[in-house]
Structure prediction request, 299 residues.
Amino acid sequence: MRKQTMTETDAAATARVLSEALPYMQRYSGAVVVVKFGGNAMGDDSAMAEFARDIVLMRQVGVNPVVVHGGGPMINEMLDKLGIKSHFVRGKRVTDKATVQVVEMILSGLVNKRIVQAIMDAGGRAVGISGKDDDLMVCEADDPELGYVGRPIEMNVQVLRDLYKAGIIPVVAPVATGMADNETFNVNGDTAAGAIAGALQADRLLLLTDVAGVKNAAGEVMTQITPDEARQMIADGVIAGGMIPKTETALAALDEGVRAVTILDGRTPNACLLELFTDIGTGSQIRSTEPRVKPVLRR
Prediction:
C-alpha cells in the first residue's frame, strides 16, 4: 500500500496550487529571470536549501534563472578574523587592496560555491563564475574615495546565455575587472544584478532583501509602483536609506529594457515562486508597462 505522507485535503490543495500555477509557468517558459540573492537567508542552511529548490523548480518548468549573490556578513566576518579594519565614507566601506582580496576570496570562493552546491543538492546543474570571467562585467571606480568599489560600464553576457541555453544555472559573484588596469573591483550585489538583467534584456529582476518591500508614507508595503512614483518617493524622502540604491537599481534596469523588477523579502518561504507563479505575488513590483496578465491582486 502506498505510504500516506499527507491528508487528502492537503493533497487536493497541492494539486489545486499546481493547476493554478500552470498559466504562469506557460507565461514564463523561456523567460530570463535574474535573481539577486542576499541578506540573512544566505547564512541559514535551511533557507539556502529552500532557495536552491525554488531556483531548480524554475529551471525545471522552463524558466532561465540567473543568480547573482552578495555576501556582506561573510566578508565582515573574515575581515575581523584577519584584523583588517574597515573605514567608511558616507556610510560606504572604503575598499583598499587588502580588502578587495578578501572580498574576492569570500564572494568568488566560499559564498559562490555554497550556492552552487545547494543547487546541485536540489537536483539542478549550476556553474559559479564571477564578473571577471570572460570579462562578463568591466568596471571603473564608482567613487575615488571608496577605492576598489566598481561601477559596471561594459557588460559581456554571452557566457551567461551559453550556460542557461545548455540547461545550466549561472551563479555570479559580483566582483569585476577594471577597465584601465585590470584591477579587481567589488561591485554592489544589487547593482551587479541590475546591470546583468539589463544586458540580458531579462523579463524579470527579483531583488531579494530582508524587508517586505517598498513602503509608502503610511508605512504600508506598495505592491505596484510606476517609475515616476518611485522617483517622486525618493525625492520626497519616503524611500530612504538602503532602499534608495535598490530602487535606483530597479529604475536603471527598467531603462535598459527589463520588463519588471520586484523588491521582495527573501526570508518569505518560496518567495520567488510566490512572485512568479501565483495570483498574489509578493513584495513591491516596479514596472512601466501594464501587466500582460491581470490576476485579482497584482502581477
